[in-house]
Design goal:
The protein contains nine helices and 41 strands. With 469 residues, the chain is of the alpha/beta class. It has two domains: 3-222, Spore Coat Polysaccharide Biosynthesis Protein SpsA, Chain A; 250-436, UDP N-Acetylglucosamine Acyltransferase, domain 1, CATH 2.160.10.10. Strands 12-15-18-21-24-27-30-33-36-39-41 form an eleven-stranded parallel sheet, with helices on one face. It has a nine-stranded parallel sheet with strand order 14-17-20-23-26-29-32-35-38, with no helix packed on it. The chain has a seven-stranded mixed sheet with strand order 5-4-1-6-10-7-11, with helices on both faces. The chain is elongated and about 115 Å long. Bound molecules: uridine-diphosphate-N-acetylglucosamine (UD1) and magnesium ion.
Length: 469
């Protein structure tokens, strides 16, 4: 089958009441139009067109790297006019066109394949995916005479008996390229001032073409998003599906209703996920990990058997196997936490490499640092990486011991196996195996407290004496 695909994504999305084009609204952290193209991609058509409007540069950006070309619909004059914009780019194409809406993000590749299979098998000119809609809705109604499809009537134009029809149009069609010639016969809808693509069905029927409508999916999969209510519902369906998929592959959830997982994220088996965990972007979580409550992991890779403790944020970083991060830790972009390393309570790591087995257990800031293996970073250690103008690097060799409350003023290097005494301010390189101490020497004034006490008593008695009459 010679196949081309068209995604209509130029609508204003007025009902969303948003400055953002509708198809860029996220369903579980991923713009709806990306969801659609990800399903479409699996059909391996080499000719994919996305119709965008004049303010569609964001859509182009969201689809950078996807195998699609763009067609411009100059004004949002309806779905029929949007397809016309694509047709101009399809001149000379002969074959089957698969048409989708950018606002129907949960459509699966399997359903699209089913449509194409039936379309070819029944030798139809136009095939529609329909579904049964429950409750009140504004989908176009499929009008049949007996089994034959006669028209699609939009909710706004339907009479009372048509409104009762619950078989509705998903906005997804397969059609033969010759049918595009009928686009010119669509008349503007007076009430809306738009050219409805759905009118092509009635026109094709009158020309004696073969039309089929097939219930190939349910409302969950085929839900169209016009409002924020619809968006929330679709996100819920998608979330349920993603979590079920990971449970099937061996991931445990304490409370599935409070966990958010990006559609592109991956999770290894025997990982346990506590409530309120967010796994965002293309994050990869290894096997046998534990993600404790309130952790958010964005665009990161977490190795096998790592433990991410409560209230921790990890962004664009790598945490290697058996490492422990948190509670209350922040791993900022560009960091690598080595195998079996420990990043503990209230520790912030930025653009730093932390060696295997290294421990920073409490209250530290490690920025622009490269820290070797088996280093002990004492509580309250701060890398002073910023001089007000530029950032500088701190290099700490393997097996170093940094005492608590140390400030390391970068750029500086602490050699392998060196010790830094607690409370030091390190401004010069420390040679390997040395002990660096920069705090002032402690001195004692013997019996100072006793003298202070006796001074205080004699002062008090002087005051009392003065008060005597
Ligand atoms: C459309 C169908 C309706 C179907 C429903 C399924 C029409 C007239 N109606 O209604 O039968 O039940 O989808 O969800 O087709 N678009 C453009 N340019 C435009 C207008 C729209 O590209 O000028 C795009 C939108 O970005 C959207 C898609 O076409 O992705 C559908 O448009 P929308 O306005 O959402 O149509 P519905 O009212 O939902
Ligand atoms: Mg819609």
């Amino acid at each position: 089958m010679n196949l081309a695909t068209v995604v209509l994504a130029a609508g204003l999305g007025t009902r969303m009441k948003s400055a953002l084009p509708k198809v860029l609204h996220n369903v579980n952290g991923k713009p709806m139009v990306q969801h659609v193209i990800d399903s479409l991609k699996q059909l391996r058509s080499g000719n994919n067109i996305v119709v965008i409007g004049p303010s569609g540069s964001g859509v182009k950006d969201a689809l950078a790297g996807y195998p699609v070309a763009f067609a411009l619909q100059k004004e949002p004059k309806g779905t029929g006019d949007a397809l016309k914009a694509a047709a101009r780019q399809l001149k000379g194409f002969s074959g089957t066109l698969l048409i989708l809406s950018g606002d129907t993000p949960l459509i699966s590749a399997a359903t699209l394949r089913n449509l194409l299979r039936l379309h070819a098998k029944n030798r139809e000119d136009v095939s529609i995916i329909s579904f049964i809609a429950e409750g009140p809705h504004s989908y176009g109604r499929i009008i049949r005479e007996g089994a034959k499809v006669k028209a699609v009537v939009e909710a706004g134009d339907a009479d009372e008996s048509q409104k009762k029809i619950n078989e509705v149009n998903s906005g997804i069609y397969a059609l033969e390229s010759r049918v595009l010639a009928l686009l010119g016969e669509i008349r503007v809808n007076k009430a809306k001032g738009e050219y409805y693509l759905t009118d092509i069905i009635g026109i094709a029927v009158r020309k004696g073409l073969r039309i089929g409508a097939h219930i190939l999916g349910n409302e969950t999969e085929l839900t169209g998003i016009n409002t924020r209510e619809d968006l929330c519902r679709a996100a819920h369906y998608n979330r349920e599906k993603i979590i079920s998929k990971w449970m099937e592959s061996g991931v445990s959830f304490m409370d599935r209703s409070s966990v958010f997982i990006h559609p592109d994220a991956k999770i290894g088996s025997d990982t346990v996920i506590y409530p309120n965990v967010h796994i965002e972007g293309g994050t990869i979580i290894g096997k046998g990990c534990v993600l404790y409550p309130n952790t958010r992991i964005v665009d990161s890779a977490i190795g096998d058997h790592a433990v991410i403790k409560d209230s921790t944020l990890i962004e664009s970083s790598v945490v290697k196997h058996r490492a422990a991060v948190g509670p209350f830790a922040h791993v900022r972009p560009g960091s690598v936490i080595g195998a079996s390393a420990k990043i503990g309570n209230f520790v912030e790591v930025k653009k730093s490499v932390i060696g295997a087995g290294t421990k920073a257990s409490h209250l530290s800031y490690l920025g622009d640092a490269e820290i070797g293996e088996n280093v002990n970073i004492g509580a309250g250690t701060i890398t002073c990486n910023y001089d007000g103008k530029e950032k500088h690097r701190t290099l700490i060799g393997a097996d170093v011991f940094i005492g608590s409350d140390t400030q390391i003023v970068a750029p500086v290097k602490i050699g392998k196996g060196a010790y830094v005494g607690a409370g030091s301010t390190i401004t010069k390189d420390v040679p390997p195996l040395a002990l660096a101490l920069s705090r002032t020497v402690q001195r004692h004034i013997e019996n100072w407290a006793l003298r202070k006490q006796s001074q205080a008593t004699s002062k008090k008695s002087r005051v009392k004496e003065k008060k005597l009459p």
